[in-house]
Amino acid sequence: MDGTLSQRRIGLLFLVFCVLFAAAAGRAAWLGVVKADDLKAAAATQQRAQVDVPAHRGTITDRRGVELAVSQPAADVSATPYLVKDPAAAAAKLAPLLERPEGEILRKLTQRESGFAYLARKVPATRAHKVDLLGIEGIDTTPTSRREYPRDWLAAQVLGTVGTEGKGLTGLEYRYDQRLRGRDGRRSVVRDATGEAINIRDPRRALPGSDLQLTLDAGIQDRVEEILGDIGKTYRPKGATAVVMDPHTGDVLALGNWPRVNANDLGGAPASAIQNRATSFVYEPGSTFKPFTVAGALEEREVTEDTMFNLPPQIQVADRTIGESHARGYVSLTTSQILAQSSNVGTIMIGQRLGAKKFDSWVRRFGFGKPTGIDLPGEESGLVLPLDKYSGSSMGNLPIGQGESVTPIQLASAYAAIANGGVLRKPRLIAKANGKTVRATRGKRVISEQTAKEVRDMLKGVVAAGGTASEVQIEGYTLAGKTGTANKVDAETGTYSKSRYIASFAGFAPADDPELLITVMVDEPGGGSIYGGEVAAPAFEDIARFALPYLGIAPK
Amino acid sequence: MAEPRRRTYPVEHKLLLTATLCLLALGAVMVFSATSATSALAGGDGTGYLVKYLAYGAVGLLVMHVLSRHGLELAKKFTPILLAVAFALLVAVKLPGIGIEVNGARRWIGVGPLTFQPSEVMKLAIVLYMAQLLAERPKRMQTVQGLISPMLIVVGVACLLIASQPDLGTALVIGFTTGALLLVAGVPMRVMGTLTGSAAVLIMIFAILEPYRRARLTSFLDPWADAAGAGFQSVQGQIALGSGGLFGLGPGQSVQKIFYLPEAHTDFILAVIGEELGVIGICALLALYGLIAYAGLRAAKGARSQYERLLAAGLTSLIVCQALLNTFTVLGLAPLTGVPLPFVSNGSTSITVLLASMGLLLNIASRGALQLQAVAPPKKTQGSRPHADRDRSGRDSGARGARAGGRRRAAG
To answer: Which residues from B are below 8 Å from A2, CB to CB?
Structure first.
């Protein structure tokens, strides 16, 4: 046989092999060097995932540690529709766990062209785990947390809400979002093809949010809301608000709003019910404003408790004539009696002694016209007429609480200054943040202790015989307060409405050494009575009757 | 008797043995790396495949050792029987109840963990058969007709049986090896051209007839077009190679091997090598196969007879063609076919048969040395050579086979 031909052919074969090996090596270099970046990116796309690890949101408790808002582990359940092999079977299995209609889930799963769809968000962890156990291909769960309000209705407008993305939207949840939220962690996960993590790095650890302990007391809050509910039932008002405060510290013990809403189901409530009226509702205070006019005049030594005023039935101020709410003849009343009987004419005469300039400065000293600074978002500042805008008749209505507008919390904090001996403090809701006590602000003295005491004594007369709220009595405690029945301004005509009122009461107990301050405001009561003494004062009494012994304030 | 033991083996023999052992070592490491994670996740200790690989490797090395001493002698005696048995097994695989079906392919025979793949045996049988036939009847290969009957008919039927399992990869390896053998045998280029052309047409028809092969063909042209479907394996392989870059992520660091890459421990082990050892690792691997090609063909050149020459060239081509087909497939230079990477991929029959082939090759390579050293006349007549071979190898083996085997076992 021709051996040399074979020898040559072997050489040729080796050459062919060499060329092919070279081609393979070249291709390997092409993929591993030139195309490496693209391919690494493709690898990262399928292997790596950046996951946000939600930080545990802080718990909100009342002053005694009762949990008002807590975060529970939960999961968002999502689908990659085109991966779900049997959408009908999957929907049937998922529907009871997700508590969604089967049809809705099936519709989402059958949108085959879509690569992602949320089936349900914030599913409680126990049920989400069952979804995981089903092991349906194309169904994923992403851990998150779910905000729950164990007491449902309690202080819902104060606590506020958290959105699906874990951000506070309203109330304290919004105001303290940064603190409550903490900082989400960032996790870099390398997954195998089945989605199991094979390497986890945490370039940023999650920092849990701070817990908040409120000054609110769930017990008092509960009772306040119950009482407001009764008012709502009886008088069918547009809304009602009550604030309970410790006048010495400014601690808000209860802040109730009616109509109430379920914090766990805010979607079902009207927007007007969700707002916190204590800070957002602006109204003309009417008679509840009179003590500040009197306090100013006392402090300026224009009047004393016993200064006698001869009061005509009506008083003419510039182009306006102002009378009493209940017509009467000529009387002589002391400063104390003017306040107890809520005489418009008398208060205007005291205001006139004070003069517009001093009056204006006293209104502002008590904090009207600017937000109190309470730890709630969206606080209104009310409306106080600037001195240079006063007309001739201004001093005929401003001293009796018409022409300026306030928020319930402003009124409460101003009354607290009278109750605590003359110091105006920022009302506060946060007692402890992350275990650290938040110190009460030092406050600002606005009137002397003596003046404060004198006004308190005068306000005792309101609930005594001959006062505008003489029925308000609690055995063993002396009470003091002031009623208010203010005409609402008709938005259309710009004049005072004859049918729509705001009934209010602000008071404290025990009157000589007040430890409890309560304001009640009822917007447009119907169904029989419109008077602060009849609508709001009994609510004050009910709240005080519960809260005084509850707080361990001994009767005398 | 003592003298041959101390003799130095020719360089081809050393190179072949070195390359083979290197590949086996690499194979053990890579099979372990590619399978430990997935098999550990499946609930084992992760060493299942490694143990299997080592077991079959040990069997294979034993076979290699025996054949490197007595390979030619046995080959001449048993070639027809081996071919017949291989055919019988290929037919048996088709029978339900005997053949085992995995992933829609009926390629295996056996019971429990002891399965084996007749097509692998057929590869070796075909090379042995063709080398014998081409060496004995050199005249037949001058014409197409002479080649076809009976040789190419035998090869064709074998390929058809294998391709219908379906195992196009192994059929292609046999086809390429046949081509290489015919080339070395000195078939005229005109005849080679005719045969290559017809074979190419046949393969194309075969590839297009079946929809899934058609899809593989189109996905080969652009695997990324259907990265989640037909192109999935290619794309995942390329992603693995790209992730590795020049130097690789380091042994054991592959991510792709965990369920992304199908057949990571068998047909696509090269992708894991690329991911963990980089382009450098792949080049080293290619260099080892290049070494086998060089040494094997050198042994063929130095062979003393046309039979040995053809056998050496055929066996070398068998290993190299399979290596090339596998690397081309994984690197995206050829459509998906699915043959294991010689010596490296985990595959019981593949390793054993390839090591047997290597044994034969070593036998031929070592005889070149004997011829240089111990035998004076460089040229013998064709008739007398087999006798001389048989005499010598018989003497050698009688005394040495057992001893060497015993020692090796003791050492291991």
So the answer is: 138, 186
Would the CA dihedral through B173, B176, B178, B183 be positive or negative?
negative
Confidence class for position B168, pLDDT limits 50, 70, 90? confident
Task: Answer whether residue A3 is part of any domain.
Answer: no
Treating both helix axes as pointing N-terminal to C-terminal, what angle do B348-373 and B269-302 enclose, rounded to 10 degrees?
30
> Which of B134, B181, B234, B238 would you mutate first to test chain A, the one with the most A CBs within 10 A?
B238
Q: What percent of chain B has pLDDT over 90?
A: 23
Q: Let me know whether A139 and A168 are in one domain.
A: yes
Task: Tell me if B242 and A21 make a contact (CB, 8 A cut-off).
Answer: no
Full residue range of the structural domain in which residue A521 is found: 218-550
Same domain, A401 and A321: yes
Compare all CA atoms of chain B with the CA of A37 and give the residue at the minimum distance: B242
**Residue in chain A nearest B302 by alpha carbon:** A7
* Domain at A143, CATH number: 3.90.1310.10
User: With an 8 Å Cβ cutoff, is B247 touching chain A?
Assistant: no
Cα dihedral sign for B121, B123, B129, B131?
Answer: negative
Residue B243 to residue A35, Cβ atoms within 8 A: no
How many Cα atoms sit within 13 Å of A228 on the Cβ side?
A: 32
- How high does pLDDT run on average in chain A? 88
Number of domains forming the structure of chain A: 2
ipTM value for the complex: 0.84
pLDDT at site A196: 67
Whether A302 maps to a domain, the answer reads: yes
Same domain membership, residue A310 and residue A184: no
User: Is-catalytic flag, A280?
Assistant: no
pLDDT at B5 over 60: no
- Within-domain flag for A10: no
Distances (CA, A) of B258 to B41, B42, B230: 9, 11, 19
A6, A21, A43: residue with CB nearest B242: A43
pLDDT at position B2, please? 44
Query: What average pLDDT does range A406-431 have in this prediction?
Result: 93
In this predicted structure, the answer to whether residue B102 has a pLDDT above a threshold of 80 is no
Residue among B187, B177, B119 at smallest CA distance from B148: B187
Same domain, A357 and A231: yes
**Cβ of residue A271 closer than 8 Å to a chain B Cβ:** no
Amino acid identity, residue B21?
Answer: L
